[in-house]
């Protein structure tokens, strides 16, 4: 029987953010690619019905390419 | 390489274990044998039928400050070779070229067959191929291959694009592919 993942454990992205909060987000919009550089921190929030780790990331600068 | 049937079987297996299909259970990426290029990726980067290949490949490098740097290339800018090697051509003054000169690590991702392929590679610069293709040519050796799939959904497409003038671009791509083959 496969066990549900514990909060934030076992996921490489969560481990990387715990060590280094830098994150780059890209999204295709309006014929181009929007790139956002963010710095993330883990939130203390947890929810019994949502077995995930919560993060909040702030913008370091947005670049459209 | 997982076939559609294998993916469906995987979903069926997970269905039998989860309370519902919507359960968000972490599924680690599937590791594939190191050093090889998955057949579907090799086919996508074989330098042929380029106008049918409208998915951009996402390439990530690390800049001088440690930030992830994202770039997009097309199948007309890249070429898979034997021995787990992938060559690509980029602007010599690009951020990506500078990052690779400093740190040859690069990660490529591509959506195929319901999932996302992730290839970790180490790149080295090759000599500039020809004056007609004023780009910097690199050759990357695959060191790790992972396949990302979700039990509750299939990835249907990656980043796609539409060419403004396909025939003009195709001509340039074909010159680039020829240069990548010839590069030493």
What does this molecule look like?
The complex is a heterodimer of chains A (65) and B (184). Chain A has a 3-stranded antiparallel beta sheet with strand order 1-2-3, with no helix packed on it. Helices cover 12% and strands 45% of the residues of chain A. With 65 residues, chain A is mainly beta. The longest helix of chain A has 8 residues, at 12-19. In chain A, strand 1 and strand 2 form a beta hairpin. The radius of gyration of chain A is 15 Å and the shape is globular. Chain B is α+β, with helices and mostly antiparallel strands. Chain B has 4 helices and 8 strands. Chain B has helices at 4-17, 39-44, 95-102, 166-182; strands spanning 30-32, 57-62, 68-73, 78-81, 85-90, 105-112, 115-125, 136-148. In chain B, strands 1, 2, 3, 4, 5, 6, 7 and 8 form an 8-stranded antiparallel beta sheet that branches. Mean pLDDT of chain B is 87; it is low at 1-19. The chains are: A mainly beta (65), B alpha+beta (184). Chain A binds chain B through residues 1-2, 4-5, 10-11, 20, 22-24, 26, 28, 33, 35, 37, 50-52, and chain B through 14, 17-18, 23-26, 28, 58, 66-70, 72, 159.
Task: Summarize the entry for a quick read.
Chain A is mostly beta strands and 65 residues long. Helices cover 12% and strands 45% of the residues of chain A.
Q: Structural class, from helix and strand content of chain B?
A: alpha+beta
- The sequence of SSEs of chain A as H and E is HEEE
How helical, in percent, are the residues of chain B?
10-25%
Helical stretch tally of chain B: 4
| SSE-based structural type of chain A | mainly beta
Q: Which residues of chain B sit in consecutive blocks of at least 5 with pLDDT less than 50? A: 1-19
- Largest sheet: spatial strand order of chain A: 1-2-3
């Amino acid at each position: 029987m496969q066990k549900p993942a514990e909060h934030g454990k076992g996921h490489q992205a969560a481990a990387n953010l715990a060590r280094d909060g830098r994150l780059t987000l890209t999204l295709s919009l309006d014929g181009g690619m929007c790139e956002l550089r963010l710095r993330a921190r883990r939130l203390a929030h947890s929810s019994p019905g949502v077995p995930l780790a919560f993060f909040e990331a702030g913008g370091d600068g947005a670049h459209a390419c | 390489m997982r076939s559609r049937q294998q993916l469906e079987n995987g979903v069926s297996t997970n269905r039998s274990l989860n309370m519902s299909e919507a359960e968000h259970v972490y599924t680690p990426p599937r590791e594939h044998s190191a050093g090889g290029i998955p057949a579907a990726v090799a086919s996508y980067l074989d330098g042929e039928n380029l106008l049918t290949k409208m998915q951009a490949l996402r390439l990530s490098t690390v800049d001088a400050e440690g930030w992830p740097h994202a770039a997009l290339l097309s199948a007309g800018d890249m070429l898979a070779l034997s021995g787990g090697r992938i060559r690509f051509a980029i602007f010599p003054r690009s951020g990506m070229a500078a990052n690779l000169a400093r740190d040859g690590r690069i990660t490529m991702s591509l959506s195929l067959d319901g999932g996302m392929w992730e290839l970790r590679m180490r790149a080295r610069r090759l000599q500039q191929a020809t004056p007609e293709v004023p780009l910097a040519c690199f050759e990357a050796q695959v060191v790790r291959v992972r396949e990302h799939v979700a039990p509750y959904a299939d990835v249907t497409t990656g980043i796609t694009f539409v060419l403004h003038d396909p025939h003009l671009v195709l001509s340039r791509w074909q010159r680039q592919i020829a240069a990548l083959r010839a590069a030493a």
